[in-house]
UniProtKB/TrEMBL annotation:
<keyword id="KW-0012">Acyltransferase</keyword>
<dbReference type="Pfam" id="PF01553">
    <property type="entry name" value="Acyltransferase"/>
</dbReference>
<dbReference type="GO" id="GO:0016746">
    <property type="term" value="F:acyltransferase activity"/>
</dbReference>
<keyword id="KW-0808">Transferase</keyword>
<protein>
    <submittedName>
        <fullName>1-acyl-sn-glycerol-3-phosphate acyltransferase</fullName>
    </submittedName>
</protein>
<dbReference type="InterPro" id="IPR002123">
    <property type="entry name" value="Plipid/glycerol_acylTrfase"/>
</dbReference>
<feature type="domain" description="Phospholipid/glycerol acyltransferase">
    <location>
        <begin position="21"/>
        <end position="131"/>
    </location>
</feature>
Length: 195
């Protein structure tokens, strides 16, 4: 990441140095996940759509510990693998909106709330800014080479009441709480970076 762009990493010290952590990342561009993986202070295991695991990219993604997920149905293997990362005290990366969009945390799915409630892991909000500002001249699908991309880590927090309940009501309440915290972090990150 540092050889292609100029990432500016802010607040990485906020990431707990040990124990299970979920990084909830906005997703406006394809480079957001790799940018976080290349700048995070701990190894991050993302749930990535199975369509990305093709050709040589399949072996590479598996080799760096990424998790394949089938987004067309409830993928029990992906859920088990993700919970295993957290049970081992690792870091799970999730795009809470499920797919690329405006990167504004406007429509969260319940997956983030489920993993946070089930594991009791701390959630660290992460905002990537600048990746989708404009296309590159050489490769239009990527940000311009050597452009600045900001990665801003927020304060860790937990959701729920600590009981581990995963009822529909608990998931809905946790999703609302997550959306408020993530949206507030996005606002703070924009103010901090001037973007």
């Amino acid at each position: 990441m540092h050889s292609l762009w100029r990432p500016r990493v802010l607040g990485a010290w906020r990431v707990p140095p040990g124990g299970p952590v979920i990084m909830a990342v906005n997703h406006a561009h394809n480079v957001d996940g790799p940018m976080l993986m290349g700048t995070a202070p701990r190894p991050v295991h993302f749930l990535i759509k199975k369509e990305a695991f093709v050709g040589p990219l399949d072996a590479f993604l598996r080799g760096i510990g990424q998790l394949k997920v089938d987004r067309t149905s409830a993928d029990r293997n992906a859920v088990t693998s993700a919970l295993g990362v957290l049970a081992r005290g690792g870091v799970l990366g999730i795009f809470p909106e499920g797919t690329r969009g405006e990167g504004d945390f406007a429509s969260l799915r319940s997956g983030l709330a489920y993993f946070a409630l089930r594991s009791g892991a701390q959630v660290v909000p992460v905002v990537v800014l600048g990746s989708a500002d404009r296309p590159g001249r050489l490769i239009r699908a990527l940000p311009p080479l050597r452009s600045r991309v900001d990665v801003v880590f927020g304060d860790p927090f937990t959701v729920g009441d600590g009981s581990g309940r995963r009822t529909r009501k608990a998931l809905d309440q946790a999703t609302v709480q997550l959306q408020e915290r993530l949206t507030a972090h996005l606002k703070d990150a924009r103010r901090l970076t001037g973007r």
